[in-house]
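User: Here's a structure from my thesis project, written as structure tokens. My advisor, Dr. K., wants to see whether a designed sequence matches the one we expressed. Can you design one independently, without my sequence as a hint?
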């Protein structure tokens, strides 16, 4: 049996994406430099600015090494996987970044579209059960301490 020959691929050049649609700039070099400056400025904008292109940073308040995530969804997955005991408390706690609370299940969301998607998926019933179980466990803890 003869070995399979894999052809060499040509070297590829990756150029940065020009995000300055409709820019009056005549120089591509100037345009990409301008684009890079705009991107770095976007990273400095506060997550509360409402600019949907601005990446918010969500920090885990439990991890000692300052773990942070670019999206709420990734922080949510981290909390479910790594801090299962604190997950419900995390989801029902309002913060500056996570400020919209569902009146049915008490879970909090960072943006209205997250909250609306939550309502459309009808995940309130499952979340409400988790919340009720959490509250019950707190009550049980209080009964034990008496």
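Assistant: Designed independently from the structure alone:
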């Amino acid at each position: 049996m003869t070995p399979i020959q894999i052809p060499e691929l040509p070297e590829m050049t990756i150029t940065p994406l020009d995000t300055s649609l409709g820019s009056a700039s005549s120089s591509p070099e100037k345009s990409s430099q301008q684009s890079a400056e705009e991107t770095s400025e976007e990273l400095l904008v506060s997550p509360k600015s409402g600019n949907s292109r601005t990446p918010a940073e969500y920090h885990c308040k439990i991890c000692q090494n300052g773990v942070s995530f670019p999206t709420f969804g990734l922080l949510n997955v981290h909390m479910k996987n790594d801090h299962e005991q604190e997950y419900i408390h995390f989801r029902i706690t309002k913060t500056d970044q996570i400020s919209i609370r569902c009146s049915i299940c008490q879970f909090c969301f960072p943006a209205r579209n997250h909250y609306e998607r939550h309502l459309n998926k009808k995940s309130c019933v499952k979340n409400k059960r988790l919340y009720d179980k959490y509250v019950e466990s707190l009550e049980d803890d209080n009964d034990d301490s008496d």
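When you compare it with your expressed construct, this may help: Residues 39 and 54 are 9 Å apart (CA to CA).
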